[in-house]
Amino acid sequence: MGTIAPGGNHPPEAGRYHLYVSLACPWAHRVVIARRLKGLEDVVGMTVVDPIRDDRGWAFRAGPGWSEDPINGFLFLAEAYAATDPSWTGRVTVPVLWDRQTRTIVNNESEDILRILDRAFGDLALPAPVLRPPQLADQIDSTNASVYRDVNNAVYRAGFAATQDAYDEAVADLAGGLALVEGLLMEQRWLVANRFTEADIRLFSTLVRFDPVYHTHFKCNARLVADSPALVGFVRDVAQVPGVMGTIAMDQIKAHYYRTHRRLNPSGIVPASEGPDLEVPHGRSRLGPEALASW
Fold first, then answer.
1. Do 281 and 237 contact (CB within 8 A), yes or no?
2. Measured at the alpha carbon of residue 205, what is the angle toward residues 202 and 210, in degrees to the nearest 5?
3. Residue 96 forms beta bridges with which residues?
4. Which of 16, 137, 246, 263 is deepest in the core (most CB within 10 A)?
5. CA count, 13 A, side-chain hemisphere, 104
6. Residues identified as active-site
7. Do 269 and 231 meet the contact criterion of CB atoms below 8 Å apart?
């Protein structure tokens, strides 16, 4: 997929690019947070899809917190993929970074888009935080790989496991992954070099969904984030970074998982719990610098 860079096919320009996202999706949530923290809301537009996905895929509908597509009038996100590549037969996923001028998708990989928003817009964006500073890139990439394997993806492997062995393997990986990050976060405020980076965003987008969704819906019920002072404190800490709380749409998160995955939840009943209270004091200031002050 492509990127945004001066002199390339997709140069950085205000108003040229648009994000298609689901506020329910943890991968898209990373991008929404980056857009907010980098002050790009007036530079890169954003449209939220309906959180309930059926066999036609992500759809643009009017609703509380989501909308029809004001840019192209697409009814379904699949149309953006078809407009970019009429022969496309792959998965239709969020987030999508769209170029309004070329009428094509620039990129649909959350990691790439997060980094594009972090670095590509120069003076159009806020200078801090730098979410993937070059001097920490190797450490961030190593942490991301571990967290992806044993936390971000492990919950999905558990939830969609088709055999007991596959489920057992996934929850064992998850137990190890949670123990690892919990150990780190007991001693320091942030995952990498005790500075707020994209690694913290990537862990947060899974942990904030863990108690209200993954614990029950994906059968990841060996423990709760709320039972770990380090983990729940971390979730509250990130949520209380200026701007982040407004990116959390727990109603859409719960509706998506419990009403879309009918094989896992045939009744479509959405449980009441929204997880830990994110607005109470996190108690982590003694462990390191504030997220934005660290830059």
1. no
2. 125
3. 20
4. 16
5. 13
6. 25, 156
7. no
Report residue 271 as tokens: 């449980």
What pLDDT, on the 0 to 100 scale, is given for residue 94? Answer: 99
Cross-strand partners of 18: 45, 98
Coil/strand/helix, residue 83: helix
**pLDDT tens profile 157-177:** 999 999 999 999 999 999 999
pTM (whole model) above 0.85? yes
Give residue-wise pLDDT tens across range 190-227: 999 999 999 999 999 999 999 999 999 999 999 999 99
Helix, strand, coil shares of the chain as percentages rounded to 5?
A: 45, 10, 45
Q: What is the CATH number of domain 134-241?
A: 1.20.1050.10
Rg of the chain, C-alpha, whole Å: 19
Pick the CATH number of 17-124 from 3.60.10.10, 3.30.1330.10, 3.40.30.10, 2.40.110.10: 3.40.30.10
pLDDT at 275 over 80: yes
Q: How far, in Å, CA of 151 to CA of 174, rounded? A: 5
Structure tokens at 107: 């990129």
